[in-house]
């Protein structure tokens, strides 16, 4: 499985906007190399693949928007992705390339996910929380209207704890991405962050210092919030820098700044 060293790494790059070719992968390598990155984690969202359809059954049933979204995105077979990975592994590049998946963690689907991901020798596996009891919180700001922010934050971190305890993943993606549209709870999260840190250590997982909200949502804050970061550092949680790039020209972007933080 994935082992991080002390070199500059971009631990979260999506390749979804291009064809599965060596030339497409070379574009990510080119930009990462220019930024001084020595290692990259390339991945796809699990919702891109038909094999994960059962995992998203509850998500598709939640409303028509989400059903349409999944129908639009879930068109590939994992075999296509695996074929690309095998081809890339035959080649040499100026940066080290690892391949994996970003799997949306949805409570109750753990056994399905386990069976799918154990069918291939992935370099790493990332778990993320994108759905709260069936609802996608990071699609549109207006979808938050009428929602109880405090309750959403409580459930978000409850689900995250279950994600870590599942033992399915090497890395926790963007651990405070619920802030994506600028909504914050009325209560302090220090105790919650400490619990998350302890669980990450217990299950030997990395947490992402992820710049995706800054890059893709325009959030002023770069990376995870300072309180969470300080607690993770104090408790010696393993941290991996990640751009959350969705196009080659963003590969390695802000990694140096994220590392310095």
SSE order and pairing:
Elements: E1 9-14, H1 22-34, E2 39-45, H2 57-62, H3 64-73, H4 78-88, E3 96-104, H5 110-117, E4 124-128, E5 131-132, E6 135-136, H6 149-165, E7 171-172, H7 190-202, E8 206-210, H8 212-216, H9 226-234, E9 238-242, H10 255-260
Parallel strand pairs: 1-2, 2-3, 3-4, 4-7, 7-8, 8-9
Antiparallel strand pairs: 5-6
Helix pairs in contact: 6-7, 7-9
Strand order of the largest sheet: 1-2-3-4-7-8-9
Write the element-wise H/E pattern from the N-terminal end onward. Answer: EHEHHHEHEEEHEHEHHEH
Strand content: 15-25%
Q: What is the overall pLDDT average?
A: 96
Please summarize the sheet with the most strands: 7 strands, parallel
Instruction: Report the radius of gyration as a whole number of Å.
Output: 18 Å
Q: Helical region count?
A: 10
- Show unreliable segments: none
CA(first)-CA(last) distance: 26 Å
Structural class: alpha/beta
Q: Which percent bin holds the helix content?
A: 25-40%
Would you give an account of this structure?
The chain is an alpha/beta fold and 261 residues long. The chain contains 10 helices and 9 strands. A 7-stranded parallel sheet has the order 1-2-3-4-7-8-9. It is globular and about 50 Å long. It starts with 8 loop residues before the first strand and ends with a helix.
